Amino acid sequence: MLVSANHLIFDFDWDGARFAGKFRIGDRVQLIENNQVVPGEIIRIQLIKQKGFYAPLTPSGTIVINGVLASNYAT
User: Fold this and answer.
1) N or C: which terminal CB in the chain sees fewer CB atoms within 10 Å?
2) Distance between CA atoms of 10 and 49, rounded to whole angstroms?
3) Once rounded to an integer, what is the mean pLDDT over residues 37-50?
4) In the Cβ-directed half-sphere of 28, how many Cα atoms lie within 13 Å?
């Protein structure tokens, strides 16, 4: 999943969202599989500079991207 450091991603081990830039290898995020929240371990972090991020908004404020539960909100 490609996100900015300021996007909010839901932490599996802490009941809430954290900025993507605060996650480290080995941390676990919330994945959605078969309509259930399951842990997914971060195995790689790569810094990429790129233009053209798309920021969709949903009524619930959350979105699932490639199976990862994320927030629509960022700073």
Assistant:
1) C
2) 23
3) 92
4) 11
Residue pLDDT, tens place only, 57-71 = 888 888 888 888 888
pLDDT at 74 over 80: no
CA distance between the termini of the chain: 18
> CA 58, 48, 8 angle in degrees (round to 5)?
30
Contacts for 56 with CB less than 8 Å, ≥ 6 apart: 63, 72
The label of the residue with tokens 């959350």 reads 62
Q: Taking the model in full, what pTM does it have?
A: 0.75
DSSP H helices, 1-75, are none
Which residue type does 72 have? N
